[in-house]
Specification:
The chain is of the alpha+beta class and 104 residues long. Helices cover 29% and strands 23% of the residues. The protein has a single domain, classed as GIY-YIG endonuclease, CATH 3.40.1440. It is globular. The C terminus is likely disordered.
């Protein structure tokens, strides 16, 4: 029996030096947000080119898990449409894409 991968949407915030860099944000999806943070910060190979200038990055928020990549990509796309400030303020996913939490 195969286990479905668990996808996460993450928002990175720049901890870089200048005031302008401190306002930068980046939204992505991953099966392992902690590993992706290391990649974006250049500690492991594979980070996005667009995050090289804002290093160091920190995780601002992780949403999920989502059972499907498509669902995570929908939320990622909706967050990417927002401005950097909006990304930091929009932590709650749209009601039709709420976190899939195991029933407790």
């Amino acid at each position: 029996m195969d286990v479905e991968p668990q996808w996460f949407v993450y928002v990175l915030l720049s901890s870089g030096g200048s005031r302008e860099r401190a306002r930068r944000s980046y939204v992505g999806i991953s099966l392992d947000p902690a590993r992706r943070l290391l990649q974006h910060n250049g500690e492991l190979p594979g980070g996005a080119k667009s995050t090289r200038g804002g290093r160091p990055w920190r995780i601002g928020r992780v949403l999920g898990p989502y059972s499907g990549r498509g669902q995570a990509q929908q939320l990622e796309a909706s967050l990417k449409k927002l401005s950097g400030e909006g990304r930091r303020l929009a932590w709650e996913p749209p009601s039709d894409l709420e976190d899939e939490s195991p029933a407790g």
